[in-house]
């Protein structure tokens, strides 16, 4: 599997208002029920995303290990999931929606992350600060659905292929940022900062 090609297959959009709305969509060669199961079953989530604990049903609370947690706000199998997505001690509004639909014998997945982002944080990294993480997550889903081994998230950025994936993702989110009206100089700074965060150049290859 060409991992950079997997990144280029996705479509990204940004609504840059008081709330930031990031949308990432792509098609998988798997049926809707299989993708839904991979996205909502704790055992499968731990194989391609992160270990998760909690009550994984409508109204239940969940927690990803070392990352975000929240409440399951809507759950309509096998097509729609909405959760609050809270990270840190004083999080603002943040929700994630996942919508699945059949397309060309496979599944179209649309992930939408709507969040209140502090201006200083947005100025530093723009949409790529979260978007690259979502790209890497959905890349993991692609490998999982294809029955392929996962990459090591701790060393992926140190490999040539991993760095190319991260750079392509960061630049793709930069293009979405510019299309949403972001000033070119601010977009360029955000892309550079995001790339440096996820794949610092002083790491060995």
Tell me what the structure shows:
β3 (52-54) and β4 form a beta hairpin. The protein is an alpha+beta fold and 205 residues long. Strands 1-2-8-7-6-5-4-3 form an eight-stranded antiparallel beta sheet. The model has no long low-confidence stretch (mean pLDDT 95). The protein is globular, with a radius of gyration of 16 Å. It has helices at 3-8, 32-40, 42-48, 119-125, 128-145, 160-179, 184-198, and strands at residues 11-16, 20-28, 52-54, 61-64, 69-76, 80-84, 94-103, 106-115. The chain has one domain (3-198): START domain (Alpha-D-Glucose-1,6-Bisphosphate, Chain A, domain 4). Helix content is 40%, strand content 27%. The longest helix is centred in the C-terminal third of the chain and has 20 residues, at 160-179. 27% of the residues are buried. The chain has seven helices and eight strands; from the N terminus they run αββααββββββαααα.
């Amino acid at each position: 599997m060409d991992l950079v090609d997997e990144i280029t297959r996705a479509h990204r959009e940004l609504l840059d208002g008081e709330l930031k709305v990031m949308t990432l969509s792509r098609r998988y060669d798997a049926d809707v029920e299989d993708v839904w199961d991979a996205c909502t079953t704790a055992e499968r989530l731990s194989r391609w995303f992160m270990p998760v604990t909690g009550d994984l049903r409508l109204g239940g609370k969940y927690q990803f290990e070392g990352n975000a947690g929240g409440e399951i706000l809507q759950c309509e199998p096998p097509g729609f999931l909405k959760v609050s997505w809270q990270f840190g001690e004083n999080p603002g509004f943040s929700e994630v929606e996942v919508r699945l639909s059949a397309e060309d014998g496979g599944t179209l997945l649309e992930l939408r992350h709507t969040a209140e982002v502090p201006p200083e944080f947005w100025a530093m990294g723009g949409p790529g600060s979260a978007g690259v993480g979502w790209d890497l997550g959905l890349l993991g889903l692609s490998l999982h659905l294809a029955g392929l081994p996962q990459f090591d998230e701790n060393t992926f950025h140190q490999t040539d292929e991993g760095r190319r994936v991260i750079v392509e993702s960061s630049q793709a989110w930069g293009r979405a940022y510019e299309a949403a009206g972001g000033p070119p100089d601010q977009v360029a700074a955000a892309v550079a900062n995001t790339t440096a965060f996820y794949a610092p150049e002083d790491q060995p290859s």
